[in-house]
Amino acid sequence: MELQHINVKLLLGKPEQVDLDPLIPIFHEWIQDQIWDDLLLDVADYRHVHAGPGVILIGHEGNYSMDNTGNRLGVRYNRKAALKGSNLDRLKQASRAALRACERLEADSRLQGKLRFNAQELEISINDRLLAPNTPATREAVKAELIPFLQELLAGSDYGLSFNEDPRSLLQAWVKPLQAFSATALSRNLLPA
Amino acid sequence: MKTSNALWKQRLSGKLPESLADEIDIFETEVALKKQGKLEDRVFAETRLRRGVYGQRYDNGQRHDGKKVQELAYPNRELTKGPNTLWDAPGMQRIKIPGGGLNASQLETLADLAEEYSDGIAHVTTRQDVQLHYVHIEDTPTLMRRLAAANITTREACGNSVRNVTACPYAGVCPDEAFDVTPYMRALSRFLLGHPDCQNFGRKFKPAFSGCSQHACALTNMHDLGFIAVKRSENGQEKRGFEMYVGGGLGAVAYQAKLFAPFVPPEEVLPLAQAVARVYARLGEKKNRNRARLKFLVQDFGIERFRELVLEERKNLPPDPRWTEYLEDAEKFQEEPLNPAGQQPAVGSEAFQRWLKTNVRPQKQAGYMIVTVSLPIGDITSNQLRALADITRRFTRETVRTTVEQNFVIRWISQSDLPELYQALEAAGLGTPGAGTIIDIVACPGTDTCKLGISSSRGLAAELRKRLAEQSFQMDEAIQNLHIKISGCFNSCGQHHVADLGFYGVSRKMSGYAVPHFQVVLGGEWGHNAASYGQPVVAIPSKNIPEVVTRLTGCYAAARKNGEGFRDFVTRIGKVEIKRLLDDLAQPPADPTDHSFFKDWGDPREFGLGDHGIGECAGEVISSTDFDLAAAERQLFEAQVLWENGDVEQAGKTAYQSMLRAAKALVKAEYSDVGDDPDEIVAEFRARLYDTQKFFDPYAGGKFAHYLFAAHQKAGVPHTPDSARLLMDEARLFIEASHSCSNRIEIPVGI
């Protein structure tokens, strides 16, 4: 199966301590400076909705956000444009994008060091219900794709893997490393050999 | 763009209503042809608009990022989807929801589409539509197919066409209605969709149905075509019918609809609508978009002549079985409840009681309630849409509708189900109280996503909502019940004309900086289907608007007389006093280095487009153009006061003079010797600012200059109350456009 439009979300530790106000100017700065190869376009602030998409940095190839879907605050990358290569390549691309955004936010002094990956939980979802309907068969197929990727991402460490089984939901995997990893450590694990 | 688009086409093949499937196939071909450069920009733009595919801010590939105008490096900058609209720039998809009616599976479809093609948010509009933002043009055919599979169309959601047919969301359950307008609304919506007589309009055409005249729920007075249900007795039998109205509309200059007929029998609703459409298509303005709405045609002909033309057209229409074939079922139409009628529980938490008070109202059917799901600025997440679908299945026969206040209502809730329903809504974050109160603020998308937005209507709405929510339950009840509506520009998508406290976005120069402002519009009437429109009082910097609300509501609470409504209070106190109350808020900040003042709510970028020419002493950098424009505004304010005092003639003359003054202010920047002769001012304005297009707005073009030319041409013609009021509205827009022009063109400080 072909996995496209991959989303990776890194859950934050102590989310109640994170002040989201500074994110608006931070994301605007990322646009001003066009900090990455992706084309960054606009900022959408949805903090007024309950358990929603939070603050989104809209991009052409993908969106970066401080996502609060399900009342679970995390740094999310949502790949919109199709990507060539293998499923492993695409999983790595989305993870790298989420991780670099998280690392940059962790280092931004305006967030006072309070925004931190919790080192224990990632969400990976496929934002296309036709390519990846949330069925038992697809979940099995995706699991097979995730295993080699997670082997690399978590440097061979053990992890828990479970899926959201609501058939209306996007196909969504929850990854829980048994060993704590910082965003930087995970990024390092994904560096080309 | 989604990789699954081709797969969706296969998957849904044969599963869509045939007419919709063909339409979408044609549109998909047009998208492909445009991509190959085989369709002209203007033609494709109207083609996509008629499918609800709209442009969005920055789609010309440029964005002021707070430091400079930045070119957005889209992969293909050569390819366009309309004039000055880049192919790859994300856009908005408008989705028509006739009468706001949705079932559970349709809610789920909207949830999936918002998640997969947009940003996880569906936005309910002030015309009961749903909009998705940041959508790629190449995904739109698939999105339309998935909607069509749920029996929803985007056809004619935008463009010069019949827009969503709206209706009172309480139709069928409202205790005050004459009868349920739902089946008539649906029949008209189906009948006019794609109708050949509706394909040659100069502008859009908006119909609405209301079940009664006293409430606001369908706002028929501000629609091109409005029907209000009435009953009358004929030969001892009660007959259904409609008051029919034509030629209403908000927009830059707001018009109240005129009564076309006091009683139109149901069998005449569709043919009369068709006849109106034919007259509009044949005689409506086509070249000048700014005078192309039906309201101008009705105004120009007068209602009597317009009525004659329509009735003549009606006589010549070839009979169509669709006019009447729905009528038998319409009489019998009645939604059914899922659960038996119940008793309202006497107890509950304080939060539950608050919610009961503001979000729940009785139906005309005993034992059932209508529940409003209050959405912050019309936004709902995909997960909330799914939760709402579950709730409507659990408690009703999927009877949910969107409202023009950007909320949902769930109908047919058994009173005894209210506690469980509240719990379910609360769990989904949908149990917020305050529906229909001062915190239930309506706002158009404004500068967030709209190309025409001047100030941040959503940013202001979110800020006001946050501040007011903290205190709303301690407020005087009269204040709680006020309506706030905000538009990002003069085009009224936020319906600021019909609010107690209305605001629309404008810009002004202060201390050499462009500063986001809102024009304060007071005293509109929301009830009686938007019976009268508010009037602008003063433009205030955006950052001071919360204080405006605090002062006005405080003053109202303190000084209102027994039971006095806000509109009456504003009239009694008078604009002069209200302006005095707010005048200090219109001034620049005491500290000219306080740059927060030059930014809009929710947007850290400095406002404006590179025209920040700050000098050594910012407070003194003011051109005489700015002074002259301020004087023109003062003069217009005097005109409004005259009008309110009944001196209609002088009000009209003063409004015209305020336009001349603004025109002269701009002319003087180029030709300081211009005199006071109106002919000279207008001629110089035409030659120096209109013919050169310096006055032209990037989107409105020369529209507002025509207001000056028309006023000059009609100078000396006696005024009626209506004509003076319209002239004041036009003068307001002309002065606003003069401010914008002054901001755009470099005017030396010494002038």
- As laid out across the biggest beta sheet of chain A, the strand order is 2-3-4-5-1-6-8-7
| Portion in strands of chain A | 25-35%
By DSSP, the count of extended strands of chain A is 8
Number of domains of chain A: 1
Unreliable stretches covering 5 or more consecutive residues of chain B:
609-622, 747-751
Any idea of the CATH topology of the largest domain in chain B?
Sulfite Reductase Hemoprotein, domain 1
* SS strand fraction of chain B: 15-25%
What does this structure look like?
Chain A is an alpha+beta fold and 193 residues long. Chain A has one domain. Chain A contains 4 helices and 8 strands, in the order E-H-E-E-E-E-H-E-H-E-E-H. Chain A has helices spanning 23-33, 87-107, 136-153, 183-189; strands at 6-12, 40-46, 54-59, 62-67, 74-79, 117-126, 159-163, 171-177. Chain A has an 8-stranded antiparallel beta sheet with strand order 2-3-4-5-1-6-8-7, with helices on one face. In chain A, helix 2 packs across helix 3 (136-153) and helix 2 (87-107) packs antiparallel against helix 4 (183-189). The longest helix of chain A is centred in the middle third of the chain and has 21 residues, at 87-107. The model of chain A has no long low-confidence stretch (mean pLDDT 97). With 751 residues, chain B is α+β, with helices and mostly antiparallel strands. Chain B folds into 5 domains: 5-149, no CATH class; 174-332, Sulfite Reductase Hemoprotein, domain 1 (2-Layer Sandwich); 350-427, 2-Layer Sandwich (Alpha-Beta Plaits), CATH 3.30.70.3340; 437-572 and 581-617, Sulfite Reductase Hemoprotein, domain 1 (2-Layer Sandwich), CATH 3.30.413; 622-751, Nucleotidyltransferases  domain 2 (Four Helix Bundle (Hemerythrin (Met), subunit A), Up-down Bundle), CATH 1.20.120. Chain B has 24 helices and 26 strands. Chain B has a 5-stranded antiparallel beta sheet with strand order 1-6-9-8-17. In chain B, a hairpin with a 5-residue loop joins strand 15 and strand 16 (368-373). In chain B, helix 6 (182-192) runs parallel beside helix 7, helix 7 (269-283) packs across helix 9 and helix 8 (294-301) packs across helix 9 (303-316). Chain B is globular and about 75 Å long. The termini of chain B are far apart. Residues 609-622 and 747-751 of chain B have low confidence and may be disordered. Chains A and B meet through helix 1 and strand 2 of A and helix 1, helix 4, strand 17, helix 12 and helix 14 of B.
